[in-house]
Protein 1
Amino acid sequence: MQYSAPETIESALKLLESDDDARVMAGGTDLIVQMTSGMRSPSHVVDIKRIPELCGVVQTADGGWKIGAAVPGAELNEHVELKRDWPGFVEATDLIGSMQVQGRATPVGNLCNASPAGDAVPGMVAAGATVTVAGSNGFRDVAAHDVPAAPGRTNLEKNEFVIAVNLPPKPPNSGDAYLRFIPRTEMDIAVVGTGVFLAFGESGHVREARIALGAIAPTVVFCTEAADALIGSRLEEEAIEAAVLAARNACNPIDDKRGTAEFRVHTVGVLIKRSIAIATQRAKRQVGMD
Amino acid sequence: MSKMHITTSINGDTTEFLAEADQTLLSALRDNLRLTGTKEGCGSGDCGACSVRVDGRVVCSCLMLAPEAQDRAIETIEGMADGDNLHPVQRRFLEEAALQCGFCTPGFLIAARDLLDRNPNPTETEIRFWLAGNLCRCTGYDKIVRAVQKAAEDVRG
Ligand SMILES: Cc1cc2nc3c(=O)[nH]c(=O)nc-3n(C[C@H](O)[C@H](O)[C@H](O)COP(=O)(O)OP(=O)(O)OC[C@H]3O[C@@H](n4cnc5c(N)ncnc54)[C@H](O)[C@@H]3O)c2cc1C
Ligand code: FES
Ligand code: FES
């Protein structure tokens, strides 16, 4: 195996093009485990952590955020302004592993590893994230929920890689939240994860909503049906129940040692309600609405 | 495949070594450099026995490739004591009997010192969360947490 740590996006692309079995590495917390266990044996590991543009978090002119693909969870968790705007996304990323894992693991690696249970993914999708993909034809932006194709596989082309996650400017009176269910209290893999984003209008009705479900289907589910059930409502009980029903209908889970399919479908509803409550509280706290 | 020549700083000393591209930093530390204080429990990021600090962040050295160490600053357990003077966290682990077999201890010490460097006044909950990536199969965690609390008092002075 070969290891390279290019310092520009262009040289990283060249290395990927030059070798069909090359693989991008960010934090390596999935990739190195897969390599040492013999699950993957890339002929070339292209480490993207020495590319300066990929190593920072910057606020964009419109008030959104551009998070470099090499930035680990620990750094996001220390970023006060980012956390203030998108606490749900940052908390989702922070749930990944221990403090040691946080020192390396990136949300983009979580997305591109394409595990159905990746915690950062529903948080990112609910926040309305896109990722910027670099390839031989230049750059393109892709909705985060369109990146995973199947467990362990993405929709990226062979020689493409993600250089950043883009979060939109946070609208006024809005909040996001991510919750997961695990059998233990720490250090475990999500049985169900739910990401919720809500923005309220002047009169207190839901103006915008996004709901993302993790670990209940082969890839993250961006559940517009559930979000539509909330939009226009004032989160009356019927609206929330309709969202829960829509989310449960969108589930396509498996039975495994962590939980049965039935348990997962049930838990999605419980976690969505709680995530809605947290997102609402965060949205209202900003304007002192209650 | 020829080996890679890596230059890095380990506990403040410029160090050079040859590594396979797919070797972990843990293996390079133990097998190439004979710095065997850093332990291998699981090799998969779960136990924290292999914890080291890299450019000021604690990571599992089993989840880092040796060539990644190029031009980084690595801190291992071998650099924690100042000559014969133990770091407060080391001294308190001894005094509070926070170890039995000692296999997990270097990892706990590296993680605990990093916590106290960042926050010399952590709550018990903060200590337990910070150390959630370090597993001990014999001592039990209460003594370890108590030792970190005592060390925190020492650090605060
Ligand atoms: C002890 C332990 C606990 C964990 N706990 C959790 C947990 O609680 N929740 C959870 O979701 N995950 C968990 N994980 C898994 C892992 O830490 C996360 O998925 C992490 O976010 C992966 O990020 P990384 O930067 O380390 O990815 P890497 O290992 O570097 O990469 C992962 C995959 O994505 C690809 N990739 C990486 N970056 C890019 C890019 N920029 N463009 C294209 N492809 C790319 C790689 O080729 C590889 O296939 C845990 C892992 C360990 C070891
Ligand atoms: S040996 Fe690295 S975490 Fe267990
Ligand atoms: S003292 Fe034996 S594993 Fe912790």
Note: Residues B 40-43, 45-50, 60, 62 surround FE2/S2 (inorganic) cluster (ligand 2) (CB under 6 Å).
Protein 2
Amino acid sequence: MADISSNFLGIKSPNPFWLASAPPTDKKINVLRAYEAGWGGVVWKTLGSQVKNVSSRYSSVDYHGSRVMGFNNIELISDRPLEINLKEITEVVKLFPDRAMIVSLMADSTREAWHELIKKCEDAGAMGFELNFGCPHGMTERGLGAAVGQDPEIAKMVVEWVMEKATIPVITKLTPNVHSVVPTGKACVEAGTNALSLINTIQSVTGVDLDTLVPNPYVAGKSVFGGYCGPAVKPIALKFLTTIAQNATTKKVPISGIGGISTWRDAVEFMLLGSSTVQVCTAAMKHGFRIVEDMCEGLNNWMDEKGFKTLNDFIGKSVSNITHWEDLDINYHHVANINQDKCIHCGLCYITCEDTSHQAINLDKGNPYNTYTIKEQDCVGCNLCKLVCPVDNCITMVEKRVAPEYINWKMWQEKGLPLNDH
Amino acid sequence: MIKNNRLTTEQYEHNFSDIKPPFETQDAALVEANRCLFCYDAPCTKACPTSIDVPKFIKQITTYNVKGSAHTIFQSNIMGAGCSKVCPVEKLCEGACVYNLMEEPPIPIAKLQRYSTEKAINNNWQYFERKKSNGKKVAVIGAGPAGLSCAHILTREGVDVTIYEKENKGGGLMTYGIAAYKVTPQFCEDEVNYILGIGGIEVKYNQELGKNISLEELQKNYDAIYIAFGVGLANKLNIPGEELEGVEDAITFIYNLRSKTYKEISVGDKVAVIGMGMTAIDAATQAKRLGAKEVTMVYRRTEAEKSCTQHELDIARLDGCATIWLAAPKEIVGENGKVKALICDVMQLAEPDAKGKPLPVPTGQTLTLNVDMIIKATGQNPYSNIISAYAIDNTKGKINIQQSATNVSKVFAGGDCVNGGKEVVDAVQAGKDGAASILSFLQIKN
Ligand SMILES: Cc1cc2nc3c(=O)[nH]c(=O)nc-3n(C[C@H](O)[C@H](O)[C@H](O)COP(=O)(O)OP(=O)(O)OC[C@H]3O[C@@H](n4cnc5c(N)ncnc54)[C@H](O)[C@@H]3O)c2cc1C
Ligand SMILES: Cc1cc2nc3c(=O)[nH]c(=O)nc-3n(C[C@H](O)[C@H](O)[C@H](O)COP(=O)(O)O)c2cc1C
Ligand code: SF4
């Protein structure tokens, strides 16, 4: 059996699965239940000045009969008194000393406020901090949250304040509401943050009610932009993660990956692209804490199958496999192949290729079942048909290199090779 | 003993309740609708005789466009609601669903079709507008599925349609023939009213061609005539004892069941049903559901040659009906003018006949079933008399057509009277084809 325990800057947890700073981690009852279910750690719901929430605060996007493909909230940081939070943190740490207890912070924008909050939390038993520079609503209007994360200069200043005081590891959580997370990430690393985490939620409108004509979530006839998360944001999170894992400065610190993680498979993908631990919010809010059981077992089985003994054996292994477009091999070519024994004759490959791709699928009419075959000479190898086919491994892509040697776009141009093959 | 009123009202209601209940909730419909893969050139559509765009109407359910979904269905099949309850979908759309090839249950297409169309009928969503009358007049004989479907398309194009119907209700066998646990009289009436709701169709009930009206008259008064009077007469067994009290044909038995209350319908204690087609199944199951103690279906070939679907046979078996294969009725024995027993030849299969079905031949042995009622379900005969009387070209009573036109001037035909008896959905398609031919004959462009 593989060892799935994690050591993040000295903060140990029996597995790399932490709950992200959010409602699942905002009080003792939840956190105890999470630990009992098997979660490796939590990032306690963000603490700061006392705030007041509105009642209606979540909305979501459903897709093709599946609920909560994307999730949206307009909630603020913890609305419970700081003293209660601190007391509960102490109690929880005492009961579960083997789990990671990170406390998320968003103090008012003064050095004193940050120092005071850091002191109190360290006294309460926090093992690490996560600086919330990401919350995209409510707090930004007060110059906090994403307002900090969107400006590298301000972020740098706040991290410096924190590093002056903190005696435990500091993770800075980045907002995705920027065109690149690298400038702020770099600024924070230069200011001394021990680690980075990403992503926080993405500003969004999940939809408009077609009866009331009011967007979601509905608050007395109005709505506001909320923060989007859940499975829908995973690809965006992975992209931002990769940029941090590849940048010369930011890659020096460990990363805690967040954004749309629902299963062990999602988690492994984040880890392959550079996350040392992963954090989960929406999936737990949708299904409860019990999902961690399969996350642990699935990760373990996968590691055994691949021969990885510890997490470090595979963390970051895919980072270098994302390259620049101009370095891709233009001589690589593959074509689709339809396995006629598996084909169920739904025609989905045909209609996508015919209407929107390269007219590379042949249709032989039958009653009631048509036969579909690939016109290899017309297939550009785009993968579309394979993606829409409802049967696993019915359409496969078969490698048919144009030439054996590697040639990229720059070399292609230098050689004056033909640009247009139509 | 043959008697009626065997069960309590609750028992009757339970026994004749909807055999394929609808989705209880929108969520339930959505779960299934969302499973649909939205196939291109979909096998289900090809397997539907009326070519309903199944993927489209199911997709419309998933977008909460139920109104559009029913429109899609009715565009191809104005009896889409009735069909959703009576079609043998296991050999039509659902049988072709690609999920079968994944060894997965097919999409419940009929149930989804019912979901949309029932809402349309209950809310009287009328999708089709009749064009201004163009002065052309067409007479339709028979208000069954073929006649109604033809009339609906004709009136849409501005033709003035008169339907002559010998019964006092519309719907044809939908109203008088199909098993009571598939459709209720109320539903049949609602469906007919919904179809007639477009306007421009006058139905003259209790008017029988050959009795109250003649073809010559119609030819004189109308620009075209569409014959859709189905098939009617039950086949005779031609064996001794057929005239005994307690011998009934399935069509009459079901006709009574569908037009009276359950309590009024008599069945025996021990019933033999002769035949193994859909009608035989319907007669057997309904006899059982009326309270007969034993029902035995008798067929002269084996299970492999049965003409009902496996699904239908399973229904009869689950109802507790027994089957005897390779037995051909030879004689009905009576006592005091009433049925006492059925004597059958025990058969064996010989070489296939012209249709490819193995021919049953007697072994010389017989078997005797002690029964007090015999229901004959050995097929129906076309109305050969009328057809011949008007010199309409036919094959064994089945009207011969070319693009729906008969050999007689202005006279078109379709449905059971042409195909000899298929399904409702085939009759609806025949009505569409008939209307198209009539429109082109009348030089009306649609
Ligand atoms: C017992 C039984 C069960 C069946 N079950 C099913 C089933 O479950 N599913 C399915 O899809 N199909 C079923 N069918 C078949 C289906 O009912 C027919 O295929 C369909 O109704 C044929 O439609 P039609 O319009 O051609 O004829 P019909 O439905 O027979 O309609 C003909 C109409 O013409 C009228 N008529 C007859 N003679 C005259 C006349 N001389 N003048 C004026 N009017 C006249 C009749 O009263 C009737 O209203 C069943 C048939 C039977 C007999
Ligand atoms: C209701 C809700 C409240 C949240 N509150 C906070 C918060 O207080 N502090 C914070 O850093 N992130 C907060 N987040 C963001 C999550 O920690 C996480 O970054 C984001 O939801 C992406 O992860 P997911 O896709 O697994 O949900 C919140 C998210 C949700 C859904
Ligand atoms: S890979 Fe693309 S081009 Fe080739 S057959 Fe499939 S859809 Fe068409």
Note: Chain B touches chain A at residues 30-31, 33-34, 37-44, 46-47, 62, 96, 98-99, 101-102 (CB under 8 Å).
